[in-house]
Specification:
This protein has four helices and two strands. It is α+β, with helices and mostly antiparallel strands.
Length: 82
């Protein structure tokens, strides 16, 4: 495993199966989030765009609401078309 700093961003390269499994499967909650884009996340959308949010409790709650809403709308349309 090695890291490279390029353009203010840290890149991590994994070169063994064990390193990949350890970091991407066992510790995925720590490493699987989105990079920060202050201009689009904070200034333009005030942190309210689910597409740009980091994975946290607020993101999970909004995802659950959107999933329920989209699922209900989909099944409601199916019932009307019968």
């Amino acid at each position: 495993m090695f890291t490279l700093h390029m353009g203010g961003v840290k890149w991590v390269f994994l070169n063994t199966n064990k390193a990949c499994e350890d970091l991407l499967e066992k510790r995925s909650a720590i490493y699987s989030s989105r990079p920060e884009f202050p201009m689009t996340q904070d200034i333009i959308s005030k942190g309210n765009r689910i597409v740009l949010m980091k994975y946290n409790e607020r993101w999970r709650a909004l995802r659950k609401v959107l999933f329920c809403d989209l699922t209900f709308t989909y099944y409601f349309r199916l019932c009307i078309n019968f």
